[in-house]
Amino acid sequence: MIIRKISIGNDLLNAMHFQAGKPAMGGASTISDIIKNIDGSIDVFISRSPEGLVEIVKWKTIGATVPVTIEYNLEF
User: Fold this and answer.
1) Nearby residues of 12 by Cβ (< 8 Å), 6 or more positions away
2) Distance of alpha carbon 23 from alpha carbon 60, whole angstroms
3) For the chain, how many structural domains are there in total?
């Protein structure tokens, strides 16, 4: 399933949120993909377009022991 959003922390209202398609790094980049790894960790990738070329890089890795709420992209 495709992950749409993750919230990091015990309290959803005060958690850090990362959502695919939203700006990152002060608007210089966009969150392109959120991937859950086999070991339970989560990788967040961003895309940017320096000089017109699209570049996708790994931005963050959230460890498997950190409390995370995952929202999937549901299409009916």
Assistant:
1) 69
2) 14
3) 1
Q: Residue type at 46?
A: I
Q: 62 by DSSP, 3-state: which?
A: strand
Place of tokens 């549901």: 74
Q: Give 56-75 pLDDT, tens digit per residue.
A: 999 999 999 999 999 999 88
The predicted model scores a pTM of 0.89
Distance CA 26, CA 32 (A): 15
Residue ranges making up the domain that contains 36: 3-72
Residue 9, Cα to own-chain centre: how many angstroms? Answer: 14
Amino acid identity, residue 17? Answer: H
> In sequence order, what are the residues at sequence separation of 6 or more whose Cβ sits closer than 8 angstroms to the Cβ of residue 57?
45, 46, 48
Question: Tokens 């570049």 belong to which residue?
Answer: 55
